[in-house]
Design a protein that fits this description.
The complex is a heterodimer of chains A (356) and B (258). Chain A has 15 helices and two strands. Chain A has helices at 30-40, 44-60, 67-76, 78-92, 100-116, 122-145, 151-170, 177-183, 203-221, 223-233, 235-240, 245-271, 280-294, 306-326, 331-352, and strands spanning 193-194, 201-202. Chain A has a two-stranded antiparallel sheet. In chain A, a hairpin with a 6-residue loop joins strand 1 and strand 2. Chain A is globular, with a radius of gyration of 24 Å. In chain B, helix 6 packs parallel to helix 7 (182-197). Chain B starts with a strand and ends in a 12-residue tail after the last helix. The mean pLDDT of chain B is 89. At the A-B interface, helix 1, helix 9, helix 10 and helix 11 of A face helix 2, helix 6, helix 7 and helix 8 of B.
Chain lengths: 356, 258
Amino acid sequence: MTDAKTASSFEEGLKGASEKVAEFHEDKSALKRVQHWLHQTPSAVPLIVLMVALAVFGILAENFFKAGTLTVILQQIAIVGILGCAQTIVILTAGIDLSVGAIAVFSSVLMGQATFRYGVPAELAIAIGLVLGTAMGAVNGLLIAKMKLPPFIATLGTWQILLSANFIFSANETIRSSDIAAQAPALQFWGGSIQPGGVKILYAVFLMIALVAIMAYVLRSTAWGRHVYATGDDPQAAELAGVPTSKVIIQVYALAGFFCAIAGWVMIGRFGSVSPTASTGQLGNIQSITAVVIGGISLFGGRGSIMGMFFGALIVGVFEMGLRLVGTDPQWTFFLIGVLIIFAVAVDQWIRKVAS
Amino acid sequence: MEPLLKGTNLVKRYGKVTALDHCDFDLYPGEILAVIGDNGAGKSTLIKAISGAVVPDEGEIRLEGRPVRFSSPIEARAAGIETVYQTLAMSPALSIADNMFMGRELRAPGIMGSVFRKLDRPRMEKFAREKLNELGLMTIQNINQAVETLSGGQRQGVAVARAAAFGSKVVILDEPTAALGVKESRRVLELIRDVRARGIPIILISHNMPHVFEVADRIHIHRLGRRLCVIKPGEHSMSDAVAYMTGAKVPDGVVEQA
């Protein structure tokens, strides 16, 4: 009896109705198609903005398109780009990490002090700094995944704790660049450069590009990367589908801490000295969040790509350099970045409506 | 015939509330068993105990005669019991293929898979497309489209296809038609029959009596934390079933305990 396809009586009314069940209605409007395209390629918006910015500054400032100018832009965004890798994976899980700058500065201080105060060989000191940076990130992860603290609050706390611990531990001492160059050149490794045709390119630039490329691969083409997206998209659904979301969150924050420690090492190369008062400690979080948001990564988690973050960091760098070459008041940079942030979030909201 | 899945004397207490009170449960091979009961009767606790989301305090669950004890849905899944949750448990921004393989991704062969952990996208997409086609979800054109761009019925279809593709022993469907329109519900009921036709027994939890009476082979009526009776849809009416589950009427041969 159950095999008979006896529809319930109220379904008699369906007779003569269209047989189609929930088919797609391909929307022909151009705007809808743009929305769908952006939905699938979220890094397209920052790429377009970047191209427009390059074109505009290329016209306005005659020496903008020189190899020297472009490599300086890359050099300027190297640290923000690496912190941005950390911030990207965190924000993809619908979290936020306010402590990225503090971990970077504290890690650089730990590397420097281990070498100069405790006489540890520089290579080992670097390894210690990287491990401790990872541990600081893991603490963030544990607070968020196990104690269920909101990421904003947990990392607001660790930001202050780590930054002050950094001042107390270092006794506010700066290690001078000349001392590092003489005794522990490995600390300054990323400040080295190659100079093809007289154009100086720092190793730090290659490192940043390599990290972005590796993370782009990991996020797109590995199961772990998919789990990061799923955790940020809908944690309950991810958990029921078999994703160990707590573990993913701890791993993400620990990996973010590792990236921050790498950024700390790069800072020594970029600035020469080890300084506990480096501005990255206070501004690193805002700069990296700016790159991520302009890069079209959703603060609500689960959407966006790390390439977008890279374009976002480049946009900031291009604006700073371009406006300086044009000779305007540098405050216009922040004005325009503020406009871009609001634009980027508005576009994100619009793209999210694709489902409806 | 031996039951494929058998629960005996299951007890689950939440503080002073006894959600499962020495409950028995039987699922036979190849059947669609509907579980109905009033709100608060404990049917979702029963389903959670079977799908691994809740560990019963007492009692025993046997799968193919062997005692099993699941401490998480993942363990139940590994044993071949798949659940389609009412919320569907899908990541809206990810693709259909990504969602079907969430938590059990396939890795590429060779060094790319073992060292670089690369996903085998072509194989996952092919498999997902095949499974959707098998269940007649041909209208889905692009396996890489985000789940949130699908309609409610299509999402339900993908969730059922995922469960049917991996559920080698049992598929549990929790209120699969609750959020759907009339036409979409019809399609899901057909999907349920298709899954049974492939030999996989189904546990269907539903409040929709016409749907239950249409597809179920047997109906487990849950009341006050235990199985009140099991009826066959041909032998009882819908109003009987509602009367039994609300306590308005007691089925023949059953003595209701106070």
